[in-house]
Amino acid sequence: MTSRNDNKNLVCPFCSLHCDDISVTTDNNSYKVNEKNNVCSKKIDSYNLNKKSVTLPKKGAKFITLSDALKGIHDLIKGHNETLIINHGVDLSGVRSMLNFASQRNCIIDHVNSKFLYQNIGVVQRTGYMATSLTETKNRADTIIIFGNKILDKSPRLLDKVIAPKNSLCSKSKKEILLIGDFTEKIVKSMKGRCNVTNIKFDLNMINDLLNATLSSDLKNIKGLSKNSLSKIKRIIGKSKYLVATWTTSDFIKTRNPKKIISSISKFIVNHNKFSRAGCMPISGVLADATSTQALTWMTGFPSRIKHIEETFKHDRNAFNSEILLANKNIDVVIHVSTINAEKLKMNKNVKNIVLGHPNTSFTSMPDIFIPVGIPGIDYEGIMFRTDNVVSVALKDIRNIKLPTTQNILDKLA
To answer: Which label site among 98, 115, 153, 404 has the fewest CB atoms less than 10 Å from its CB?
Structure first.
């Protein structure tokens, strides 16, 4: 007899919004997502077990026991000098266990998305910025400027939950939405009727010039922007009583100077507070970036790129940059921790590769040792931090395939 159960309000671990209203129908150890947003439902459903799923440890192409896998990892680390842990997404307990393990083995820890993190962190360190939360934006913001091109693809329910929600505590009128960048017509069409959307096709490299022009009393000529469009932008911003600027840093990574863009947005928001309320709301990456940053900062004082040396964790954003270390062949062993990453993991053939990953993890080449681990929010309860760092969310479990957690494995190896 099969066992069925309706699980209401599942907290999704697969994006930094961590929506807590996902309805899932379970049938033994499979599940079906009852969510209207197809992007979200397909992504969550993709972590169901299938014929290609691996639920037993492997050494190369050969299945082995967990005890043999642990011994193999121990021998690999013991026989080499420099071990790097790359976080591809895990819950709070997983990050804490990384730190514990690294403190015992003098390892380096980096997050796969740290290059994006440091673009935002740099602004905070140099000048600080005025931030707001998802809840404030949902309930109080009347004007939202969205910079980039892929932010609504990476966080599909940002529109439904925050930008144009059906219900709002304070704001009853439609929000003014300014899209600055290269957003698709599909995105624009999905917004119409729910908010007043203005789509400005614009070179992201010119954001600083655009924002400066909105502060000028004259209508300046800006490459790629008509004076009528600039006038409209100024009018919308000028009428706003609560303005929010949002972006995801990965959208700027191909521009000439991402730091300058983020800094210019921050300065614009600070200046706008002279006239009315305004705040920044950057959206973090989908691989539990905020969780990693919060945990590492609390426990070591640094957000990423750290190494345990002389009984303490030390930070160097260049010396402990995983991309640079691997490119320069300064690493012997890499431990990839990947519980929520749907992308194929890149294995570096110049090092020994160990993967603690979910059962559907795929690789560019077979790692030396693979141990399948549970997914937080699917296979075990856990905690993750929302993109705005305002709240931590409690993840539930919806199936029982009896896989160890990342914490289980790293604690045994420590």
So the answer is: 153
